[in-house]
UniProtKB/TrEMBL annotation:
The chain crosses the membrane at residues 294-313. Residues 327-365 are annotated as: Disordered. This is DUF916 domain-containing protein. Keywords: Membrane, Signal, Transmembrane, Transmembrane helix. Residues 327-346 have a biased composition (Low complexity). It comes from Actinoplanes italicus.
Amino acid sequence: MRTRIVLALLAVAMLPLPAHAAPGDEALTWSVAPSGPQGPNGRANLTYKLDPGAGVTDHVAVTNHSTRPLTLRLYANDAFTTAGGGFGLRAGDGAPTGAGLWIGIGRERLTLPASSRVVVPITVTVPANATPGDHAAGVVASLVADGTDGQGNRVTVDHRVGTRLHLRVTGPLRPELSVTDVRITTATPWNPLRLPRVAVSFTIKNTGNVRLRGTSVAGVRGPFSLGGRASSAVAVPELLPGAVLSTTVTVDEVPPLFRERVTVEIHPEPADGRAVDPAPVRASSVHTVWLIPWPQLALLLVVALLAAVWLFARRRRGRRMRAALAAAEQRGREQAGSGAGASSAGQNVTPGIGSGQTSEKEGER
């Protein structure tokens, strides 16, 4: 079984990049760069602005940096934004349907001696019915080699080195990003002293016709904008028109205030740093999430129960003390009553004795 593996190396500014023809072979290194008729002229990319129906002639330089000859295939194909936000090209066995179809290459197969360079003319012809805006492609020098993988299976490896081509077709521009498929998840720690985290996943789509980059940020606010928190700004890589990118941003230490408002914002800007008219505007999406402070409520419940137990015990001790005081007062009253009765009995006996003595004295007289 034979498997085809594609290794594409396309940089903003092409430098010599290594590629191995087969396991154990000497390293083969080549590069592709924008060029003038005499050689590379320092441009980072092939960049053009053309009217529909117009064309331009340019050059690319293919350089063999190896100490052995190379035979390369030179072709153009459409570009796309990868799932990770990178710049990718369709595989060499796929026919172009976009800007790659507009590129004509003077030579499709090159044999370069060791440490040599070839300048190849190219043409870019814009169809008369081309849509306005940005179109992307690439010019690639490819080396196909057979080998084996780690499991011993035979594989065909397509090593590709190229340079980017950006073309803007004149006409009305629409620099626009949109936010879709927003999904919100919350993580509430059981430690009541720690606040929840809110993760916001969403899809960014370039719905306009201008390649854009920018930053994304998410914010969470409670009722009346209380407890507002925001995530750190996350870079949005260059998105070609029609490109889709999924990303996630997190907002930490969010006060759980029950009904929270979640806002996702994208701040776009032109990928090439040049102003466009009209200027790109902010894209946003607003959603609601419930963030219940369960750990804090549980802590409050425990505190309330402890307070209720303490109040109940305090009142019980108060009732016992009042009952003890009442009992002591009652015993005091009873003891006081008993002492008063004994004093009254003694006073009744003494006058009787006095009367007898008086009678005896009266008899003597």
